[in-house]
Amino acid sequence: MTAPTSPYTTMFEGFRAELDEHYDRRERVIKASRDLTSASKRLIFALQRTRSLARPLPSSVTKAAEPHHGATGAAHDALALELSNSLRAHRYAWQVSPGLQEFVEAATFGHYLRHQTLMSFDEVQKLWTETGEQGQGGEGMLQYSDYVLGVFDLTGEMMRWAVLMVAVWGSAPSRDADEGAPEGLRDVLRDMRDMRAALEALDVPRGTPLASEIGKKTDVMKQSVEKVENATYGLVVRGRERPEGWMPDSGGSAEGRMEVDSY
Amino acid sequence: MIDRGIFEDLQARVDEDAEVRDEIRVIVDTLEKKEKIAQSILAKAHSTPLSQLSSQVLEPAKGAIQQTMASVDDLSAVASAHPYYKWNNMWQRQVQDLVFHILLFGWLGGSIQDGSQPRPGYLLTIDEIGGILKVPVNEKQKDTFHIAIEEYLHALISLLDELARLARNSVTLGDYRRPTHIAQFIKDIHAGFQILNLKNDSLRRRSDGIKYRVKEVEDVVYDLSLRNLIPRDDPTSGQ
């Protein structure tokens, strides 16, 4: 049925070369994005072991995080190499976005634990360009949409951390006995509520890709805030009757050790 | 402490993008309106005998296509000020349609540039399309508006779909020669698509359908040759 040669063979051979180059690059970008996701997830896991707030990270945590910084740097360099110009950076933005979101999540979470402030988009962007092992690179790759979506996920990490800390705070003598709940938890809850309010106030035009991604993440973010609200409530209520050596283990939805393990 | 300024900055970026979106949408809507006029003129090719094709279809279509070019100029100017791949999905369909209509116009023997020889059955290359629309094609370095290879290939598949229909309608109009030309053309393009290593995307799905177009037109040629209706002087008469 098919003619062995067609007058258009040369033309299509040209297209094949271009498309092969595109598909191959897309594969490499997807691979590097997955590497970035996995390194960032491990970094977050290491950061979750922090037991302090607004202080430099303990050396045990920084030591555990070290190899993941290396892996993040390698993924950054692979991406910076592939997405060296604006055309490519945007062409593969969809493929690279999951990795960048996870990077934002890890960066902002580490920053929050150290400073108890939200790292800004500009700061994250700067950090990303400095993440490479081979000098600077990757400018213009991290979009504000990656940042917004990463910050949505940050609320989940703050929730996991806060819920874990309920156990620590709960067993320690309360710093503010009158209020019932430790100040630290109240601060985190206040920050999460502020973030929830600010994220919900973001007015993104309907029908855009960012709006649909935000739609997917909003419910999870709200649940995270509510889990911390419930944990705080539990501490307040039971804080008043807490005997020596009490551990939060029952009642509310997301406060016990058992619950934490399942995250 | 959460700095409200962070979110004010984000909202400003969102708003900026919304403005770009609105600006592009207005141009694309205009392009689409003009496109529909060109489309309705070219659709008459199915009901117009070859002898009247030039005056009834090609001349008015030329004017309509030239009208769309002003919108392409506008689009190119606005789009080139922003990252191409951030916004290209807003005009992809309209640009593919436009390229398809220019390909069809060219295949029917029309030419945009005055004075050039009409060449029925001719496939305009992607570079020629770029030349007609005065925009770059397959741009790989500069982040500017251009016609992408994928857009050209989508337009080419639309052309094959349209020609398969035209093969049957040519017979209805008493033109028994054109189906054999169309059959050869579709076979040649089909052979071209077969050397591409397409991944599982829309281009792959649509190109998988070309084999049905090949068969459709072969059936038309078969019906004609069975009844000895194909003019003898035609070298591709399939005898």
UniProtKB/TrEMBL annotation, chain A:
GO molecular function, one term: sequence-specific DNA binding
CDD domains referenced in this protein's UniProt entry, alphabetically: TRAX
Domain of life, per lineage: Eukaryota
One GO location term (cellular component): nucleus
Keyword Oxidoreductase annotated: no
Protein name: Translin
Family recorded in the similarity comment: Belongs to the translin family.
SUPFAM superfamilies associated with the record: Translin
Keywords associated with the record: Cytoplasm, Nucleus
Record localization: Cytoplasm; Nucleus
Top-level taxonomy: Eukaryota, Fungi, Dikarya, Ascomycota, Pezizomycotina
Region described as Disordered: spans on this chain: 242-263
Cytoplasm listed as a keyword: yes
Pfam family, one: Translin
Chief location category: cytoplasm
Organism: Lineolata rhizophorae
Automatic annotation (TrEMBL), chain B:
Name by which UniProt lists this protein: Translin
Phylogenetic lineage: Eukaryota, Fungi, Dikarya, Ascomycota, Pezizomycotina
Keywords: Cytoplasm, DNA-binding, Nucleus, RNA-binding
GO cellular component, one term: cytoplasm
A Pfam family reported for this protein in Swiss-Prot or TrEMBL: Translin
PANTHER family, sorted: TRANSLIN AND TRANSLIN ASSOCIATED PROTEIN X (PTHR10741)
InterPro entries registered for this protein in UniProt: Translin, Translin_C, Translin_fam, Translin_N, Translin_sf
The organism of origin for this protein: Lineolata rhizophorae
Keyword rRNA-binding: no
Highest taxon listed in the record's lineage: Eukaryota
GO molecular function: RNA binding; sequence-specific DNA binding; single-stranded DNA binding
Entry's localization field: Cytoplasm; Nucleus
Biological processes annotated in GO: RNA metabolic process
UniProt family annotation: Belongs to the translin family.
